[in-house]
């Protein structure tokens, strides 16, 4: 059973999402919030598996709410809804720690699949699209922190190669072919990389690779 918190300032939008969730017995709506501050409070109280987060809301927006929920160290994962795929809000949400985003006009099946994927620990956005976002808004990259540099130093040479390939947008299959590895070995490397650099998913790994200068915006 996957529990979901819906965050949107529009009542009709929240109603539509709740009706969609009711159609799937493995998804349970445990709360709603109308703005970012309420989302942060309810995420702490209810501990949902997934927070379905609108980014453009009055008061505290979804980006700041995402940042605070992620920094709290809870288990909730954030799936952001935005208007455009190459959207500054989407970029900022990913940097804040969201596990992915979907467009607001996504089909119902896409939204349900996205919630399930995020709950399972996957990222709901391709590394390739993440790279396009960083290329578009990469002039705002803050640079690496001392802790990120220490995390990067923990990686083996092979793990750095794999991380660079992930940040380039390659799939596990493509990485296996390019580096002459078994795909299962690539998966093991990716899992080890995520643990060593302290991120939740491949999207955050891509951002880490750019922050540390391992790869650079086009």
TrEMBL record:
Protein name: Response regulator transcription factor
Modified residues (4-aspartylphosphate): 54
Domain named HTH luxR-type: residues: 148-213
Coiled-coil residue windows: none
Keyword terms of this UniProt record: DNA-binding, Phosphoprotein, Transcription, Transcription regulation
Gene3D superfamilies assigned: 3.40.50.2300
Domain (Response regulatory) ranges: 3-119
InterPro entries on file: CheY-like_superfamily (IPR011006), NreC/VraR/RcsB-like_REC (IPR058245), Sig_transdc_resp-reg_C-effctor (IPR016032), Sig_transdc_resp-reg_receiver (IPR001789), Tscrpt_reg_LuxR_C (IPR000792), WalR-like (IPR039420)
CDD domains (UniProt xref): LuxR_C_like, REC_NarL-like
Pfam family membership, one: Response_reg
SUPFAM superfamilies: C-terminal effector domain of the bipartite response regulators, CheY-like
Organism: Streptomyces doebereineriae
């Amino acid at each position: 059973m996957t529990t979901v918190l819906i965050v949107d300032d529009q009542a009709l939008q929240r109603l539509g999402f709740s009706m969609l969730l009711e159609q799937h017995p493995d998804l349970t709506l445990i709360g709603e919030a109308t703005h970012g501050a309420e989302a942060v409070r309810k995420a702490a109280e209810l501990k949902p598996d997934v927070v379905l987060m609108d980014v453009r809301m009055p008061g505290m927006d979804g980006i700041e709410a995402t940042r605070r929920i992620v920094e709290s160290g809870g288990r909730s994962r954030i799936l952001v809804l935005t208007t455009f795929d190459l959207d500054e809000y989407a970029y900022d949400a990913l940097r804040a720690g969201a596990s992915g985003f979907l467009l607001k006009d996504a089909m119902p099946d896409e939204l349900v699949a996205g919630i399930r994927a995020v709950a399972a620990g996957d990222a709901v956005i391709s590394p390739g699209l993440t790279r396009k976002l960083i290329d578009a808004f990469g002039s705002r990259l803050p640079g690496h922190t001392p802790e990120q540099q220490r995390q990067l130093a923990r990686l083996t040479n092979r793990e750095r190669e794999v991380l660079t390939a992930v940040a380039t947008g390659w799939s596990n299959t493509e990485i296996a072919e390019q580096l002459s590895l078994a795909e299962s070995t690539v998966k093991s490397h990716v899992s080890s990389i995520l643990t060593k650099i302290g991120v939740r998913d491949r999207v955050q790994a891509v951002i880490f690779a750019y922050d540390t200068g391992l790869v650079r915006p086009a």
